[in-house]
Specification:
Helix content: 25-40%
Radius of gyration: 19 Å
Shape: globular
Distance between the termini: 56 Å
Number of helices: 7
Structural class: alpha/beta
Strand order of the largest sheet: 5-4-3-6-7-9-8
């Protein structure tokens, strides 16, 4: 069955097509994307959720089966996809979403409302957003692209916020800050899970070992890239 488009619909289609031809990411044009089976609002205020980041949620889901794992911090939360997914899966979990960007945090708040999730929102530079608080789990997908690589990224990616991508000269700046400071923000035996850039697993493992973390483990994504690293803070429990 053929449908004749009216003038307004044709103009809207042409506008959307022009945006895509200018290499605006499709997720920004459609204003939404699916992550772990949930629909999240996406726009230029935050990084687009990606399939490999779902591995963070899947690993955390295993840990939260432990009844002692009751609180979670999603650090550098962006859209809030990590923390909100886990809150959706575990409604009794206490979840805090933290980001340095007020715009990203506003987007995360919108997604929390859309999903019907009650969470705490905290704005600030890494752990400055949650002074004095401790968590059973800290999850983070921090900026990890080396600065000199950012201008050469795919054009669609360059439309995403630079502050969510740029990890400093070698891509490790945020790991150097998150790892030691997380020891004060984790409860004894708590677990830190972080996404990794390609080729960064060895250096991040060294940082964790030097900080005193134990039971360090790495998981690969579908392309066999070491993508997620987990480590346990000194204390009672194992993260498995």
């Amino acid at each position: 069955q053929e449908t004749e488009l009216d003038t307004a619909l044709t103009a809207e289609y042409e506008q959307l097509l022009a945006l895509r031809l200018s290499r605006i990411p499709l997720q920004y044009i459609l204003k939404e994307t699916v992550f772990c089976g949930l629909l999240f609002r996406t726009d230029s205020r935050a990084l687009i959720p990606r399939p490999e980041t779902e591995l963070l949620c899947l690993w955390a889901r295993e840990l939260i089966q432990d009844p002692e794992k009751k609180s979670l911090l999603d650090l550098c939360c962006g859209t809030g996809c990590i923390g909100l997914t886990l809150k959706h899966w575990f409604p009794s979990l206490s979840v805090t979403l933290a980001d340095a960007s007020p715009d990203a945090l506003a987007l995360a708040s919108e997604n929390a409302s859309r999903l019907g999730c009650r969470v705490t929102l905290a704005q600030g530079d890494l752990f400055a957003a949650v002074p004095g608080h401790q968590f059973d789990l800290i999850l983070s997908n921090p900026p990890y692209i080396p600065s000199e690589t950012c201008p050469a990224l795919q054009e669609e990616v360059r439309h995403e916020p630079r502050m969510a991508l740029d990890g400093g000269a070698d891509g490790l700046d945020f790991y150097r800050r998150i790892i030691p400071d997380s020891l004060n923000a984790l409860k004894p035996g708590g677990t830190l899970l972080m996404e990794l850039g390609c080729g960064e697993a060895g250096a991040v493992r060294d940082l964790l070992e030097k900080a005193g973390f134990c039971r360090i483990a790495v998981r690969q994504d579908d392309r066999r890239i070491s993508r997620i690293i987990g480590a346990q803070a000194p204390g009672r429990r194992s993260h498995g």
